[in-house]
């Protein structure tokens, strides 16, 4: 049976090394955590994995973090973990799709001279568009797509965080798409 007590008592008990306190917290909030995750992820098996990560994060963070509203804090941690999972899954799928496209694309040897010329013209047009981007975006796009560098390598070379690399690539792609469409009109 779940023992219901005020959040302050759970936090105090947990910080006082009460081994049952965190277990009670999990029992009290697990349905809440699963509900949040399932709204974002929609896969019960993945939701279980994410919930474990959430409770692990709560266990690690609770001693240093004293939330005013425990339930809201748990909801925020849960939402962030689920969104991070979804972003990571989207990136993984994009990489897989990109690999499939590369394998499915005909090799240059199988392409006719006209096809090779058209492909080179498209690549040249894309590179020209990239050079027209603001310098922070242009550098990141060039390193990622033309020099085949990882996010980590780019972050280290540019002296920026991984999130900044992701953000700049996202914005650069959006700008490139807009400029490409403007040129097509």
Give a quick set of tags describing it.
single chain, 185 residues, mainly alpha, 8 helices
Describe this structure in words.
Helix 3 (44-61) packs across helix 4, helix 6 packs across helix 8 (162-184) and helix 7 (151-158) packs across helix 8 (162-184). The chain is elongated, with a radius of gyration of 24 Å. 15% of the residues are buried. It contains eight helices and no strands. Helices cover 79% and strands 0% of the residues. It is mostly helical and 185 residues long.
- Share of helix among residues? over 70%
First-residue to last-residue Cα separation = 66 Å
Radius of gyration: 24 Å
Question: What is the overall silhouette?
Answer: elongated
**Mean pLDDT across all amino acids:** 77
Counting helices, strands and paired strands, the structural category is: mainly alpha
């Amino acid at each position: 049976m779940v023992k219901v007590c005020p959040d302050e008592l759970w936090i105090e008990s947990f910080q006082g090394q009460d081994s049952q306190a965190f277990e009670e917290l999990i029992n009290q909030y697990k349905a809440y955590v699963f509900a949040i995750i399932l709204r974002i992820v929609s896969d019960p098996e993945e939701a279980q994995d994410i919930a474990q990560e959430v409770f692990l994060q709560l266990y690690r963070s609770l001693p240093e973090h004293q939330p005013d509203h425990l339930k809201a804090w748990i909801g925020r941690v849960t939402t962030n973990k689920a969104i991070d999972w979804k972003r990571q899954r989207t990136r993984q799928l994009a990489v897989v799709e990109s690999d499939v496209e590369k394998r499915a694309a005909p090799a240059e040897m199988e392409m006719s001279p006209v096809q090779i010329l058209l492909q080179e013209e498209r690549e040249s047009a894309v590179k020209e568009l990239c050079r027209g981007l603001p310098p922070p975006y242009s550098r990141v796009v060039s390193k990622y797509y033309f020099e085949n560098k990882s996010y980590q390598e780019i972050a280290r070379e540019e002296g920026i965080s991984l999130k900044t690399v992701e953000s700049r690539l996202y914005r650069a792609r959006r700008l490139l798409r807009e400029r490409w469409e403007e040129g097509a009109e």
